[in-house]
């Protein structure tokens, strides 16, 4: 009796598909006029071109749910790409806007609007998650990136120009902070940055950022804390 012929020998698969989590920048679209969007975006990119280079972006359409105007997604996505951003999808929005985005070549990501019932249940039943701190004893040199996922980042050495430190929670810097510091990168508006000597190229909390040219002389090189208040990035001296 003949044995069945093996057409495909057993070999290691050429790739694997796995789920993962990434930090994405969200562009909350509130306007449909392409020229207005372009002018504002170009000015925003001009303030910190390195910060946005090759940044993956999700376009949130929730603010346009009630609008009857359409969005020229082909032009919008082209604009994002010419400015160095990488559009990866849209979320929220009306079915017609989502359909237009799909026709323009981008997928629709799951909506992120919690129901009213979910909001009510979250507060009494879910305590604040425990944060774990990541401690870095050595200086962070130019070109290095340090990221503390689901917790705070504590930096005992200097952060050089060209370095980048990120945390889902707070950032504590006990040496000169000269690179880029981004706290609350997953959207935690309660996150803060504490530093002994502020000389950062860029600081950001939950996407609200300020570049070194926007810092007052009284803030540079001083011990300060940074936090959000009414969607504004506040810098104030550390109390001693």
Describe what you observe in this structure:
The protein has 240 residues and is an alpha/beta fold. The protein folds into two domains: 25-111, Alpha-Beta Plaits; 134-237, 3 Solenoid (Pectate Lyase C-like), CATH 2.160.20. It contains five helices and 14 strands. It has helices spanning 34-47, 49-52, 73-82, 95-103, 116-125; strands at residues 25-28, 55-60, 85-91, 134-136, 145-148, 153-155, 164-167, 171-177, 180-183, 193-198, 202-205, 208-211, 224-229, 232-237. Mean pLDDT is 80; it is low at 114-127.
Q: Which CATH class of the largest domain is shown?
A: Mainly Beta
Broad shape: globular
Helix and strand sequence: EHHEHEHHEEEEEEEEEEE
Structural class: alpha/beta
Task: State the helical fraction.
Answer: 10-25%
How many domains? The number is: 2
Give the CA-CA distance, first to last residue.
Answer: 89 Å
According to CATH, the fold-level topology of the largest domain is Pectate Lyase C-like
Report the β-strand fraction as a percent range: 25-35%
The residue ranges in which pLDDT falls below 50 over 5 or more consecutive positions are: 114-127
Q: Report the radius of gyration as a whole number of Å.
A: 22 Å
Mean pLDDT: 80
| CATH architecture verdict of the largest domain | 3 Solenoid
Which strand order does the major sheet show?
Answer: 4-6-8-10-13-14
Tally the helices.
5
**Can you summarize the main beta sheet?**
6 strands, mixed
**DSSP strand count:** 14
């Amino acid at each position: 009796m003949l044995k069945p012929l093996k057409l495909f020998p057993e070999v290691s698969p050429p790739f694997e598909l796995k789920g993962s989590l990434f930090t994405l920048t969200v562009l909350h679209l509130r306007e449909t006029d392409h020229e207005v969007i372009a002018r504002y975006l170009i000015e925003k990119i001009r303030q910190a071109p390195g910060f946005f280079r090759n940044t993956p972006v999700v376009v949130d359409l929730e603010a346009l749910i009630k609008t009857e105007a359409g969005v020229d997604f082909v032009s919008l996505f082209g604009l994002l790409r010419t400015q160095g951003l990488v559009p990866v999808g849209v979320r929220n929005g009306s079915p017609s806007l989502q359909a237009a985005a799909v026709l323009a070549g981008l997928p629709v990501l799951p909506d992120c609007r919690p129901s009213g019932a979910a909001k009510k249940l979250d507060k009494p039943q879910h305590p604040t998650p425990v944060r774990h701190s990541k401690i870095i004893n050595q200086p962070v040199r130019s070109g290095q990136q340090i990221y503390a996922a689901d917790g705070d980042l504590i930096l005992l050495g200097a952060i050089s120009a060209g370095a980048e430190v990120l945390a889902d929670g707070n950032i504590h810097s006990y040496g000169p902070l000269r690179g880029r510091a981004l706290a609350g990168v997953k959207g935690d508006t309660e996150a803060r940055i504490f530093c002994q000597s502020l000389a950062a190229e860029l600081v950001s909390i939950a996407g609200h950022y300020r570049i070194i040219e926007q810092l007052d002389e009284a803030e540079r090189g001083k011990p300060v804390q940074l936090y959000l208040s009414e969607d504004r990035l506040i810098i104030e001296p550390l109390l001693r």
